Amino acid sequence: MKKMLFYHAGCPVCRQAEDQITQMFDSSRFDLEMVHLGTDRSRIVEAEQLGVASVPALVVNNQVLHINFGAALSELK
Amino acid sequence: MKKMLFYHAGCPVCRQAEDQITQMFDSSRFDLEMVHLGTDRSRIVEAEQLGVASVPALVVNNQVLHINFGAALSELK
Predict the structure, then answer these.
(1) Which residue from B4, B20, B60 is facing A65, i.e. has the nearest CB?
(2) Residue B4 contacts residue B60 (beta carbons within 8 Å)
(3) Could you tell me the CATH number of the domain that includes residue B68?
(4) For B9-70, where are the alpha helices, taking DSSP H only?
(5) From chain A, which residues contact B within 8 Å (Cβ)?
(6) How many structural domains comprise chain B?
(7) DSSP A38
(8) How many helices (H) and strands (E) does chain B have?
(9) Which chain B residue shows the shortest CA-CA distance from A27?
(10) Testing the interface with B: which of A6, A16, A24 to mutate, by most B Cβ within 10 A?
C-alpha cells in the first residue's frame, strides 16, 4: 500500500475537496491519511517540508497537488 | 462507471498533475477522459460551463477540483 496524505484545515473548500478525493482514490492500492492542520499544528512543519504551501493539499509519492484554495499554510500558524 | 474529466493544456504543471491523478484514481469505478484544451479548443466552452477556471482541473460528479496552477482558461482562447 502506498501512502497518500491529505492536509486540510476543516474549511468548506477543504471538505469539498476531501469528499471528491475520498470518492475517487483507489483504496485497494493507497492508504489515505487525513491530517487536520488546524487541530494538529505539530504537523505543519512536516507539511511544509513536503512542499505544501496551502490547504487543501494532497501528497502522493512525495509530490504535492494543491487543490483549489482554502488557506495558506502561514495562516494556520 | 462514473466519468471523470481531466482538463489540461499540456503544460509541465498539467503533466505532473496528470501523472498523479492517473496513478491514484480507481479505474474500476471511474472512466477518466483527458481533454487537451490547447489542441481541442472547441471544448473550452464546455469546461467553462462546468466551472473550470484554470488548468489542470479535474471534474468529478460535476464538481471541479482545480489542481495546482498551470494556466487560466482565458489564456487558452
Answers:
(1) B20
(2) yes
(3) 3.40.30.10
(4) 12-24, 44-50
(5) 4, 16-17, 20-21, 23-30, 58, 60-61, 63, 65-69
(6) 1
(7) T
(8) 2, 4
(9) B26
(10) A24
Q: In this structure, what are the phi and psi dihedrals at residue A28, rounded to the nearest 5 degrees?
A: -80, -15
Q: Are B17 and B56 in contact (CB under 8 A)?
A: yes
Read off the pLDDT of residues A19-52 as tens digits, 9 standing for 90 and up: 999 999 999 999 999 999 999 999 999 999 999 9
Task: Write out the three cell numbers for B7.
Answer: 482538463
Which tens digit of pLDDT belongs to each residue from B1-33? 999 999 999 999 999 999 999 999 999 999 999
Work out the minimum CA distance from B26 to partner chain A, whole angstroms: 4
CB contact under 8 A, A63 and B25: no
Looking at residues B58-72, what average pLDDT do you find?
Answer: 92
Give the domain extent around B61: 2-76
Residue A61 has pLDDT above 90, yes or no: no
Give the ipTM of the model, two decimals please. Answer: 0.86
Query: Which residue in A57, A61, A31 sits closest to A44, CA to CA?
Result: A57
